[in-house]
Design goal:
Helix 4 (108-122) runs antiparallel to helix 5. The chain has a six-stranded mixed beta sheet with strand order 6-7-8-3-9-10, with helices on both faces. Strands 2-1-4-5 form a four-stranded antiparallel beta sheet, with helices on one face. The protein has a four-stranded antiparallel beta sheet with strand order 12-13-11-14, with helices on one face. The protein contains eleven helices and 14 strands. The longest helix is centred in the middle third of the chain and has 16 residues, at 165-180. By secondary structure, the protein is an alpha/beta fold. It folds into two domains: 4-219, P-loop containing nucleotide triphosphate hydrolases (Rossmann fold), CATH 3.40.50.300; 222-299, Malonyl-CoA ACP transacylase, ACP-binding (Alpha-Beta Plaits), CATH 3.30.70.250. The chain is 36% helix and 28% strand. The structure holds adenosine-5'-triphosphate and magnesium ion. Magnesium ion binds next to helix 1.
Length: 300
């Protein structure tokens, strides 16, 4: 039995269709990433998975429980970190944890072992109000609060947005440890480097799942020769490459531009750009990153 199944989920807010025919199967113990730009429908999907929103169409089951009929039972097995800061800023670290534990009829001391690894990192600040914690510590506290009732499924909506890179890396290491304990985790992220750490990822755009696969599978599926190019001047280069016959797409990517072109056209492109007066031309074939794949799928 899969930990999570969605069948043909659709949801509208008035005229806005936030989700369209979303079907997913997530096995137990998987770390599943949902990648999508602002407004793609990530939070809507997560609200439905956590029984906080009933979809217009479609069905959801968690561990075989139906999200509408069995919502009470589901709430016991799900831990949820909503996108925005979900803690009580006026309560201390310890009080927040006590509160979330008491909602589920347990206590911090009873379930402390479940969060031990993470809690030791914020315990020195246990008397500090949550509002006064750093971004990374707030996220750790929110994760502790989501874990305190021993959920078997964790739903994390952009858990690392706005968190510094070191804390982000630490946070993902924690998620990988939780997954090793058999917890099923679904996390959304706008950071492509985090997508690589998932067992599988789904690209979501305008409420539609564009593609679902392992990070390696997504990269292997790219299926076109991809190149990185730099030259002087960089800015005009973008249009110059785009206009060259046979170039399917060219976009700025960090320090260079990435583009796709059949391998036998590369020498012709080089000659063409040199004739146009571009200097210091550096051009090499590269392996696509997950971000390249996302850009390709969301533009096609
Ligand atoms: N309560 C609401 N009322 C009306 N429209 C909404 C509501 N919530 C979301 N939407 C719209 O539905 C679409 C999907 O929103 P959703 O919040 O699910 O996306 P998201 O991927 O979580 O975006 P973000 O990255 O900005 O958090 C967007 O167009 C959004 O404006
Ligand atoms: Mg959101």
């Amino acid at each position: 039995m899969n930990a999570i199944e969605t069948h043909h989920l659709s949801h509208c807010y008035g005229a806005v269709q936030a989700l369209r025919d979303v079907t997913l199967s997530i096995p137990q113990g998987e770390l599943f990433g949902v990648i999508g730009a602002d407004g793609a429908g990530k939070s809507t999907l997560f609200r439905i998975l956590t029984t906080l929103l009933i979809p217009d169409e479609g069905r959801v089951t968690l561990n075989g429980l139906d999200a509408v009929r069995d919502y009470r039972a589901i709430r016991r097995i799900v831990g949820y970190m909503p996108g925005r800061f979900s803690l009580y800023g006026d309560l201390t670290v310890e009080e927040n944890l006590q509160f979330f534990a008491s909602v589920f009829g347990t206590s911090l001391s009873q379930n402390r072992r479940l969060i031990e690894d993470i809690y030791v990192q914020i315990e020195p600040f246990r008397r500090r109000r949550a509002a006064q914690l750093s971004g990374g510590m707030k996220q750790k506290l929110a994760l502790c609060c989501a874990l305190i009732h021993a959920p078997s499924v964790l739903i994390l909506d952009e858990p690392t947005t706005g968190v510094d890179p070191v804390s982000r890396r630490e946070f993902w290491q924690i998620l990988q440890r939780l997954r090793q304990q058999g917890i099923t985790i679904v996390a959304s992220t706008p950071y492509m480097d985090e997508a690589r750490r998932c067992d599988r990822i789904a690209f979501l755009r305008e409420g539609v799942i564009l593609y679902t696969d392992t990070p390696q599978g997504i990269v292997d599926h790219f299926g076109e020769p991809l190149y990185a190019i730099t030259a002087d001047p960089m800015h005009a280069l973008l249009d110059a490459v785009r206009c060259f016959p046979g170039v399917l797409r060219c976009y700025a990517f960090g320090e260079s531009h990435h583009f796709t072109l059949a391998a036998d056209r590369i020498d012709a492109l080089r000659t063409h750009l040199e004739a146009q007066g571009y200097h210091h031309l550096q051009l090499q074939p590269i392996q696509p990153t997950i971000e390249d794949c996302y850009l390709k799928l969301s533009q096609s």
